[in-house]
């Protein structure tokens, strides 16, 4: 276990040594932003809207006391979405989509000697391939978290108002009531940290793949599993630190 | 000229290369042959410093590849062209982009010159007009040719080919062999080919080194290999019964 952590840290160090020119990274960064960020908007939107809707319906169903005002429903939807769903839940979903993609891509490049081809040209393959993915992840994950947060609250609004369990006025009042702007910042910080963990752990798993197609599949699975565990541990630590 | 000196490499307790030394001359096609699992590809990886041997060294025109500054190593790497077994083309890039890749990464050449150079190399390997196709859209033989085009795009002094004929039909194999031979003579490169294809051995082997269980046990050329009296080499060369019959007929 310790040797794996050590190897992971050395791998991280390798990303920042023998770097290529800024232009090379910039072009690859833009490509990776498209592959990691833009292509994830659809799944993030779907997940966020439905999770927000479910949270609204479930909260209303369980708030049976007449002394609790109904606007508390949207208040809970807002805080749950901002503090947990828009960052942690979204990143667990992204660990599956982005993590497996990164591990699969790098694993395939490894077993088909494309990484060797880069090394032979004198290019630091880890830095060239992984650094743009890392930068794109820590740049786009917070943006996705903002989209996810907005759509989660919007999903709750749609479910609540269309089914008649809460009026639009109550919902809006609830999401504005005792709002702490720092919670948005927490969601962004979490997404930033999770983006770092998912991209580097998945890249590490893919980059050191040995064998053939079977091992590439195993590397992808392992990348997703390890990324999810890392996200959940980091989520707990950040919750302790930031709240 | 490439000189390998006393290269030894083990994986765990298994010795894969045992004190292998040789000299590969400029302008000649040098072949490293042997059965599967005898250490040919590991030797190539040691020469490219993709795997570092425990003992020994590789000299490129007298320059030790394993010691010295990163910049010195980078300079030697810029003089290398490598054709990998499966071509190792980048799946996300077109054929043209694949060939242009070393120029983009390692030179400051203007875009027009790069384009001309890529077109020239694709023409040289007989693939003009295929630049816009993706690697997934071309055949195995074409992938090898694109690999060769990428390997020669930087005008290399040293050309390495890892089993250039694997997975190809006999006719395409011969064409690839001829292409490598022509390029070696045209550019005066030091060419090292890892193979177990007897057609290549007999047709383009200016120098041949036979590896057996990680040791060099014979060296010669395509003229002398059929008369070699090393049992392990005979077993390898004459594993083809037709070839063995031809030799026996010739001897009688």
From TrEMBL, chain A:
The chain crosses the membrane at residues 34-57, 134-159, 179-204. The keyword Transmembrane applies. InterPro entries: Permease_MalE. It holds the Pfam family MlaE. It comes from the Bacteria. Keywords: Membrane, Transmembrane, Transmembrane helix. This is MlaE family ABC transporter permease. It comes from Emticicia soli.
């Amino acid at each position: 276990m310790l040797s794996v952590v050590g190897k992971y840290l050395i791998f991280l160090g390798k990303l920042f040594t023998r770097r290529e020119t800024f232009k090379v990274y910039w072009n690859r960064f833009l490509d990776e932003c498209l592959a990691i960020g833009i292509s994830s908007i659809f799944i993030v939107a779907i997940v966020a809207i439905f999770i927000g809707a479910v949270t609204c319906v479930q909260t209303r169903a369980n708030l049976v006391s007449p002394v609790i005002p109904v606007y508390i429903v949207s208040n809970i939807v807002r805080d749950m979405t901002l503090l947990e769903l828009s960052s942690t839940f979204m990143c667990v979903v992204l660990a599956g989509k982005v993590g497996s993609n990164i591990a699969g891509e790098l694993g395939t490049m490894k077993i088909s000697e494309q990484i060797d081809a880069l090394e032979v040209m004198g290019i630091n393959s880890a830095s060239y391939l992984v650094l743009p993915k890392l930068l794109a992840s820590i740049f786009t994950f917070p943006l996705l978290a903002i989209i996810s947060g907005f759509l989660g609250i919007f999903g709750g609004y749609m479910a609540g108002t269309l089914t008649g369990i809460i009026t639009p006025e109550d919902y809006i009042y609830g999401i504005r009531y005792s709002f702490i702007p720092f919670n948005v910042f927490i969601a962004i910080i979490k997404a930033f940290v999770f983006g770092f963990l998912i991209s580097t752990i998945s890249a590490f798993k893919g980059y050191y793949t040995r064998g053939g197609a079977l091992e590439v599949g195993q590397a992808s699975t392992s990348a997703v599993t390890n990324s999810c565990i890392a996200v959940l541990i980091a989520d707990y630590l950040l919750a302790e630190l930031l709240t | 000229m490439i000189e390998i000196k006393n290269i030894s490499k083990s994986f765990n307790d298994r010795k894969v290369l045992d004190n292998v030394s040789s000299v590969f001359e400029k302008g000649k096609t040098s072949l490293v042959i042997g059965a599967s699992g005898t250490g040919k590809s590991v030797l190539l990886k040691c020469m490219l410093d993709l795997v570092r041997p425990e003992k020994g060294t590789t000299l490129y025109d007298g320059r030790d590849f394993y010691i010295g500054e990163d910049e010195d190593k980078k300079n030697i790497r810029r003089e290398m062209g490598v054709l990998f077994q499966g071509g190792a083309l980048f799946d996300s890039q077109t054929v043209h982009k694949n060939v242009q890749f070393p120029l983009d990464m390692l030179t400051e050449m203007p875009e027009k010159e790069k384009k001309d150079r890529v077109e020239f190399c694709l023409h040289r390997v007989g693939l003009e007009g295929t630049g816009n196709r993706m690697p997934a859209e071309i055949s195995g033989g074409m992938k090898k040719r694109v690999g060769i085009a990428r390997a020669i795009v930087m005008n290399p002094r040293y050309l390495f080919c890892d089993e250039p004929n694997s997975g190809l039909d006999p006719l395409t194999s011969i064409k690839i062999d001829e292409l490598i031979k022509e390029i070696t003579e045209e550019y005066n490169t030091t060419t090292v080919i890892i193979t177990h294809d007897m057609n290549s051995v007999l047709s383009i082997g200016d120098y041949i080194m036979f590896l057996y269980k990680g040791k060099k046990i014979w060296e010669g050329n395509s003229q002398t290999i059929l008369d070699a009296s090393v049992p392990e080499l005979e077993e390898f060369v004459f594993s083809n019964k037709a070839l063995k019959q031809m030799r026996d007929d010739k001897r009688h």
